[in-house]
Amino acid sequence: MASIPLVDLGGHLDPDHPRAHSSARELAEALGTTGFAYLSGHTVPPAVRAAAFAASRDFHGSTLAQKQSLAINAFHRGYMGLATSTVVTSSVATVTRPNLSESLMLMHALPDDDPGLRAGKPLQGPNQWPGWLPGFRDAVESYIREVDALARYVIRLVALGLNLPARALDHHFDRPTTFLRMLHYPPQDRDDAQQFGSAPHTDYGIITLLAQDNTGGLQVRPRGHTQWIDAPPIDDTFVLNVGDMLARWTNNRFQSTPHRVVNRSGGDRYSLPYFFDTGMDVQIACLPTCTDAAHPPAYPPVRFGDYLMERLDKNHDYRLKHAKTPAAPPAR
Predict the structure, then answer these.
(1) Is pLDDT above 60 for 164?
(2) Quick one: which of 109, 200, 208, 309 could link to 93 by a disulfide (CB 3.0–4.6 Å)?
């Protein structure tokens, strides 16, 4: 039975540290086989992570009216109610039922004078915050700062693992597309095999860094395997996985592995996936160290924003309305 490797990052974010090269080799091996890895020795303080989970529980414990006051908008920011997301673009399953989850979606912060924000470009808008929860924003923004720094270091390890200079990919993330999805999975019917907290799917982008609580329920299916394997919580680790765009970028050297969530614990499950992706205008084309005469590029270049919006438009109920009406620039 396959298992998910654990990579110890050594407690630093320095790509020039001697430990970085061994971490990069281990990470490249994990992402090239299972497409997943546990990360220990990271730099996100336990107290910051715990505060973010507490904030998520407080938000999801709010009244439905309060949560719906932040209903997700055309900029993909806000509250997504139960059973409003169906992964119809899944390449690994025929999904007909919506996910049994609810979430608050927060994306990359933008200054008020950001040109994309002022023009109302796709996904370039302000976040929505639950003002009725004192301390929520501070706790969540502190967590985002820490996990974002970790994500940027992982990208440098990815570069090293592909025989590129550590900072070779940094410029693609000067204006990153990021998502923090604060997820709540209510208990599922143990006898309903067709209901998922999150149906089988692959992620759209570059990397995902997942903090999960102690409930369990995450399962993955590595390439060449027909059975799902559990990805149980391990204290003070993150679960890292490859998204579709990183698989394309690396000519399938790294695997975008199917995964799902089945919450049959009898209790509530909370998780904090952080999706760290390139800028919307970045062209994803096969990296030079991932192709040779025997391995020509498997995919044509694609603009990341085009790929992302096509999937968001198909998989989220609210997009059916907003796709017909272009987003107006945010009110000043």
Answers:
(1) yes
(2) 200
